[in-house]
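Why do we bother with a discrete structure alphabet at all? Because it lets us treat a fold like text: something you can write down, compare, and reason about line by line. To make this less abstract, here is a complete entry for Cytochrome b/b6 domain-containing protein. Read it the way you would read a sentence in a foreign language you are learning: slowly, and without expecting to understand everything at once.
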Amino acid sequence: MPSPKPSPKKPGKPLQPLWLRVTHWLNALAVLVMVMSGWRIYNASPIFDFAFPSGLTLGGWLAGALQWHFAGMWLFVLNGLAYLLLNLATGRLAHRMLPVSVRGVLHDAWLALTARLSHADLGHYNQVQRAAYLFVIADLVLQVLSGLVIWKSVQFPLLRELLGGYEMARRIHFFCMVAIICFVSVHILMVMLVPRSLLVMLLGRSTLRRTAEENT
């Protein structure tokens, strides 16, 4: 009597859901477009005594850079709202990003600096990661608010005054951009140190083997 065929394996729950992976990469694209076009806009009216290399900018000229910047802005705002709402609706924001404490961040930072911080469970965020993700969310919100003052200063007088005026809003916008660049640089470095985290954000899994087995 032939032995029964083994039942197909049911795929497990992905470490990162599809909606998170899609919004993550759309956010990355939008931020890249806004930063590179923003550098071209900055060069047209610099705040400080330097300019960004033209080869690293987007748009070719001021009007073209503004068009790219607004396109990236709308993509970021709409996709960012979807990201925040889905995080809140699914409870993921509270579950993955909280709690955070100064003591916990310092403890995990010390473990990371001494190469003792575990990365075995990629579905769990340590407190340094939580603080970094919450910081960049707040930074991007402030980036949008300061951008509104720069774009529509007359239409948002209260927001303009809360940010210290038009010129201060420009500086806030600039330093928020610097913070994003720093975050992305550290983020890329962490991915290089833990390459499995890139697979999680691409496939929802930490290994190609497991993904292949689930598709058989």
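What the structure line is telling us, in plain words: The radius of gyration is 21 Å. The chain has one domain: 18-112+123-215.
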